[in-house]
Amino acid sequence: MDKTYVADTVINRSDYQEITKILTKGDPFILSPSNIEEKYKIDQYRYASLSGDVKLKVLLDNNIFTRILPLAKGIVLECNEQNKATRFACSIMSFFIMGGFDIEFSLPLYERAYGKADGRREEDLYYFRVADNLHPQVYADVAVGKKDCFPSYALDFARDLVDKKYPSMDCSDFENPPIQWKHIYLKLLKACRVWKDVDCNINRTSIYLQWVRDNSLFIPATESFVLLFFSETRLSKMIKGINSNNKEKLIHGVRNAAWDLTYITYWGDKAEHEQGESIWFLCSNDKVLKKIAESILIEKGLERDDFLKDIFIGFWGHKDGVKVFTQYQSFKEDVFAQRVKRKDFVRGLERQIDSTILNYEEALKT
User: Fold this and answer.
1) How far is CA 165 from CA 158, 160, 191, 278, in A?
2) Among 68, 102, 251, 270, which is most buried by a count of CB atoms within 10 Å?
3) Tens digits of per-residue pLDDT, 105-149?
4) Nearest in space to 30 (alpha carbons), one of 296, 297, 290, 273
5) What pTM does this model have?
6) In the chain, where are the structural domains located?
7) More confident of the two residues 235 and 350
């Protein structure tokens, strides 16, 4: 983000303090490895942005993206429970803009465009660009309850900036979901089929991991998620609709879970590849997903293994947790040992992944 812009984007001190309290209490941020100790103190990020010492980046999730767009269109909030989440999203946006973060919003565009008419992609992109060009005080006013909408003068100014900077909104890249989402979605479809067909939880883990080894590729966050999902203490909301007789509702729940895991995987890949150059932030209020996200970026070796083992034990109990973790470690070693040979296999899988997904969707509906 431009240094001059960051230097100018200060907000009222009392609002700054209130937003710090809101975010500290909600604790939605997950950070890639860094020396940051107090992650909700904005001054350190402003200094980093202005000095150029490190790049600050955030992967915005669809919940925040979706709540911000109506405000960018001029909608006035009503006083209800749902809009508390919108005000919380405004706290997050005020924080990121004031801190000079580069906001990555491609995945929400993919997610919202999936199965929707083409025109929506252009509209979403345009209004998020408007939202991204608003002063953080505009967000702060809504976040702390001083206002219920973005003022028209601020929206007009932001639209003018967007119209000049982006004369057209090319969304052709967002016509199809990213291949990574397709892989994760296929895995979760299989996991749901196994969950429905097999009664023993330990057997479920063995069958699923064998299927991944023979028919898919290894994606750490997804494998961890599935093995936790198979436990007795799983949370029903991990895959919404899993107990529903409405098969379309189940498919919708599987797709949403696949998007959640795609965000974690994308964030983890970016954070690992840009370590030392950038600090990547991810926003989530889902405790399970946050644990999984944290586990994939812990330093390699025993520390990461112990962290993941503790998660499994927390869900499965000590005896079964150790057993499932051992299964997982053995499976992971087998996959890594064959990773060179599997390259051609993965290319073949991706050529037919769309038809494979359709087949697994139909199988899950029966």
Assistant:
1) 11, 9, 45, 26
2) 68
3) 889 888 988 866 555 778 888 999 999 999 999 999 999 999 999
4) 290
5) 0.89
6) 3-174, 179-265+299-365
7) 350
